[in-house]
Write a structure and sequence with these properties.
The complex is a heterodimer of chains A (about 250) and B (about 350).
Chain A: E1 3-12, E2 15-25, E3 30-34, H1 41-48, E4 56-61, E5 64-65, H2 71-75, E6 78-81, H3 93-98, H4 113-125, H5 141-154, E7 159-163, H6 171-183, E8 187-191, H7 195-201, E9 204-209, E10 212-217, H8 219-222, H9 225-232, E11 236-240, E12 247-251
Parallel strand pairs in A: 3-8, 3-9, 6-7, 7-8
Antiparallel strand pairs in A: 1-2, 1-4, 4-5, 9-10, 11-12
Helix pairs in contact in A: 4-5
Chain B: H1 3-40, H2 48-58, H3 68-102, H4 115-127, H5 138-156, H6 164-189, H7 192-203, H8 211-230, H9 232-237, H10 242-247, H11 252-274, H12 280-292, H13 296-320, H14 329-351
Classes of the chains: A alpha/beta (about 250), B mainly alpha (about 350).
Amino acid sequence: MSIRAENLVWKVGSKTIVNDVSLIAKPGEMLGLLGPNGSGKTSLLRLLAGLKRPFSGQVTLDGQSMDRIRRRSIAQRVAFIEQHATTNANLKVVDVVKLGRFPHRSMFSGWTSDDDAAVNNALDRTELTAKRNDTWQSLSGGEKQRAHLARALAQSPKELILDEPTNHLDVHHQISLLRLVSELAVTSIIALHDLNHAAMFCDRLLVMQAGKIVASGAPEDVLTSALLRDVFSVEAHVSPSPYHAKPHIHFVR
Amino acid sequence: MTTETIRSSSGRQSQHLWAVVALALGSLAAIALVVGISVGIGDMPIPLSTTYSAITNRLGWTMVQLNPIHETVIWEYRLSRALVAVFCGAGLALCGAIMQALLRNPLAEPYVLGISAGASTGAVAVVILGIGAGTLSLSAGAFAGAFAAFLFVALLSNGARGGADRTILAGVATSQLFNAATSYIVTTSGNAQQARDVMFWLLGSFGGVRWPEFALVSVVVGLGLIVCLFYSRVLDAFAFGDEAASSLGIDVGRMRIILFALTAVITATIVSMVGTIGFVGLVVPHAARFVVGPLHSRLLPACAVTGAVFMVLADIASRTLIPQQVLPIGVVTALVGVPFFSIILYKLQRAS
């Protein structure tokens, strides 16, 4: 296992946001996290990335409790892409991507050829090489999102946690981002709203409702008409796609 | 990677090194020039060559015969004053840049955490109420007041862990509280002359500073700059907010406390020495960012140099704008600062 959560609970005031969640992400798999708005997806991802301390329960990385790992050591292997991260600083794309090298550099070490290679590779994979010297304020929403992904890739992570990364992207970039993530040799946990995309690209799905995980397993086992009705309150027909064998959801008007 | 690219990258690095050295020398020359001009200007004009000789004489490099009055004026009054202005300008600009980075707010400045309000309360407590009469100087009172305000802000914002917005709100509330305390003391206990003295002190003046002040402010600002440069990459990593910084491996709470405390020490030292000189810490970081970009390894030195030059020029202006009268330095910096501030506001409005 790479990331494992045991009985996580997270509260804001007296309101329980994440309620007794346990999960295991196997090395290299792409784990999709589904659920309606306010079901606790973002909070769960923050707990898994070690950005918040759970109220109770724990997160482990290769069996070691995250509480006992230094922030910097976590950042050397876990990259996190949050929703709506923006800045008023007018950084260049390449400077944003270079931030990903931060956990790998000591206070005094200079910029190495390894760092250069990681940054160039990340820019390349996200199709941003041509935009490397463009400034942040001049980017479109989709380019900003890809720059965040490039920054996360430059971090050379073993685990990649993404909170609705396909927001703001056009359909071409949605598909290419998901394809890119699914082809990476990293464990990824990704919150998604588009159920068909989740079915196409994720190895396994978790469905959250009101802070709890209510279903988990392969897409074809999880995505059923009954679940869509119960959790998302939509009527839909689910059938195997003739094109990729994964389930496809036809929503009913 | 091929040998070709390695050679070109090491060539780039040595080129980069030379550029840094050239910029550093150029900056020092610019600072030396404005200091020389500042020393020469006053009721008794002194030519630049005399100033140069007086300094090299004192350092034991030359033995040029000079008017002893000139030498005394240069050494005892004007040079120390100009050099204090250099370090105060550098320090305030540096603190402004750090505040703007940590609070992610373009309108943040060194006094946003209530330092100036606290300093004024401390100063009036000593001058008007006579607390610590005789043993405590106005500067010591101001320093104590500034730190009291800073600690109060830290307490209100949950040890600076509460996030940028909460820290700013805590700073505003604390400033209001301490300003009210100052006004209360001045109106209930002060006479007209004391009120005027306090008013003048608050607007800032390099009038009373000599070599001991220079020694203190140069050490504090010099060390502050070195420590901040050490953390310049950390400041860069705050660009996308606390959570992003945390996911890059930064202990956000600890870093904020260290950097806030550092700016508090620098700002409190400057304020307790020369009063509340406004706008330098707000305006200079924006001007420097416009030229060298947002990365802090460049921005911080650029702020220090620009702040230093700006402050010396402001000091010259304060002594020459009105003949036979010295304007408070805070009035001059604000006269330049407010138009600049309006431009920033205008651009921000357009951007959103």
